C-alpha cells in the first residue's frame, strides 16, 4: 500500500519552455503533498507544501511564480516549472501523507534537464 | 546547528555484517521518526516508522529511538549487497519533516 506515482521520470526541455510534473497517490487520499528538490549527493530540499484545495506554501527562497503547484484533488498534485533555465536542472521528488501523523511516501522522482 | 545530524559516510561493510546507522537531533518537539532507503536516481522508500522510544523490528531491520538522548538508530542484520544505498533518517513535529543528510552504505559481496 501507500504508493505514490510520479511522471515523467525523466524530461529534457529547451530553455524558456515550461514543464509539468505530475504526482498521484494511487491507493490513499493525500491530505498534504510535499515537493522536494535534490542536488547530487545532497539531501532533500523542501520546496513547497500543498494541501488539497488550498494555495501551496513555499519555502523561503523558492520562487512561487516559477514553480507553480496545483493540488487539484486528494490524489493529484502538479508542479510546473515555468520558463525553465539550465539552473533549474535537478531531481524533483514529490511525496504525500495520508494524515497529519502519517509518514511521507515518495514518488520515484523526475530528472529534469534544461538545455 | 542543524535540526538533524547524520554521518554522511560512506560506510563500507562486508556482506553479512551488522550495520548501524545513527542520527541525532536537537528539537524535543519531534514526535515521530522514520528511516528511508534511497537508491541512486530513485525516490526514498520508507523502511521504518515509529513514534515512541524503544525498538521496532521488521525483518532484518531494527529501528531504535531514544527520546531522552535525542538519538535514533537503524540496525541492519545480515547485510546484503542489495542493501547498498543511501539511508536517510527523518523526523517530524506533525507539521514539517526534517531529514538527515543521508549515509551512503556499500555492502561488499
**Number of H/I helices of chain B:** 0
Number of strands of chain B: 11
| Beta-strand proportion of chain B | over 45%
Question: How do the SSEs of chain A run, as a string of H and E?
Answer: EEEEEEEEEEE
Specify the biggest β-sheet of chain A.
7 strands, mixed
- From the alpha-carbon coordinates, what is the Rg of chain B to the nearest angstrom? 13 Å
Structural class of the secondary structure composition of chain B? mainly beta
Largest sheet of chain B, in brief, is: 6 strands, mixed
Oligomer: heterodimer
Give the end-to-end Cα distance of chain B, rounded to a whole number of Å: 37 Å
List its salient traits.
heterodimer, A: 115 residues, mainly beta, seven-stranded mixed beta sheet, four-stranded antiparallel beta sheet, 0% helix, B: 109 residues, six-stranded mixed beta sheet, five-stranded antiparallel beta sheet, 11 strands, 56% strand
What does this 3D model show about the protein?
- The complex is a heterodimer of chains A (115) and B (109).
- Chain A contains no helices and eleven strands.
- With 115 residues, chain A is mainly β.
- In chain A, strand 7 (67-73) and strand 8 form a beta hairpin.
- The N and C termini of chain A lie far apart (37 Å).
- Chain B is mostly beta strands and 109 residues long.
- Chain B is built from no helices and eleven strands.
- In chain B, strands 2, 4, 5, 9, 10 and 11 form a six-stranded mixed sheet that branches. In chain B, strands 1-3-8-7-6 form a five-stranded antiparallel sheet, with no helix packed on it.
- Chain B starts with a strand and ends with a strand.
- The model of chain B has no long low-confidence stretch (mean pLDDT 94).
